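Sorry, explain these tokens?

***
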Amino acid sequence: MENSYFISKEDWSLHRKGEDDQRRHQQKIREAILNKLPELISNESLILSNGKSKVHIPIRSLEEYRFRYNFNKQQHIGSGQPTSKPGEKVGDAPGEDWTDAEIAIEDIEPLLFASLELPHLLPKPLEQLNQSDIIFTDIRKSGIQSNLDLKRTLLETIRRHAKSNQPKLQIKPDDLRFKTWNDIYKPHSNAVILAMMDTSGSMGQLEKYCARSFFFWMTRFLRSKYEQVEIVFIAHHTKAMVVTEEQFFSRGESGGTICSSAYELANSLVEKIYPPEQYNIYPVHFSDGDNLLSDNPKCVTELKLLLNRAAIIGYAEINPYSRTSTMMQAFRSVNDARFLPIVIRDRNEVYKALTHIFGKK
């Protein structure tokens, strides 16, 4: 007995059960978000609260090991008899357990933005570094006085004085040392987004909500993934104007519709402020398609002119009643792969518009 040994093995997987369950729960939340992305990004509470609110999504509960009643056996292990007999309509099929998970906008954004990008983004002309970004790379005996390296100059003077044994320390021209640099250039993929929205009286509650939902997620996507991107907000009815972001998302609807005014203003901004040589240009236009019939030819002309300067042009028409749109018919003459039109039938198709215009190509 004194020489006997006892060998035991402990299953450490039991100690990781909580961690494994947490990982499974997070994976289920991720799957639930992916399955409900079209509904989540059109959730009114998230958009109206500027992303500060939270939403609830149902997910399946994690199953725990337990004894279950078996209808096929008379003798069974369980806690009591079932409430209904096999074959009865009431309680015949087993139910599924669901629970609500609270998620914030920060949980949605990574999954949504992973599939989005600015298509055809090109590096624009190289831009020289600013004075504050200059990196000194060499020391020379000649240069401008502002780049004099006083420390190295004094060291050269002391070194020369030690060799010559002169009684007086004096700086000579050969002792001068100047810092020099090489010009370093870095490429910038500058981009400008021309966000154009119809604010005429024909834009109803659904049309207005879909347009604002799209631009809400678009601005968050651009600002989270790109640094050198500007967003210009253009609102139009019979006349187009550049507005602030706050005005863009809170502007009311009134007046008639002349869509060519938005494209004309966009072309003017490109000519004066955002030349194609320096910017990747991405105009995106949202409208209900009700345009002044006589304005359609001019609108197509302005669109084609803008298309020659832009990387892509996105046009989303909110048409929940499947009515005939004169504007979409006019745009059918634009035969270019960079022109991306899409029709939105309801608010859940805002996700489809995002992936259609900014989806990875």
In short: The chain has eleven helices and twelve strands. The CA atoms of residues 69 and 77 lie 7 Å apart. The longest helix spans residues 205-225. The longest strand covers residues 191-198.
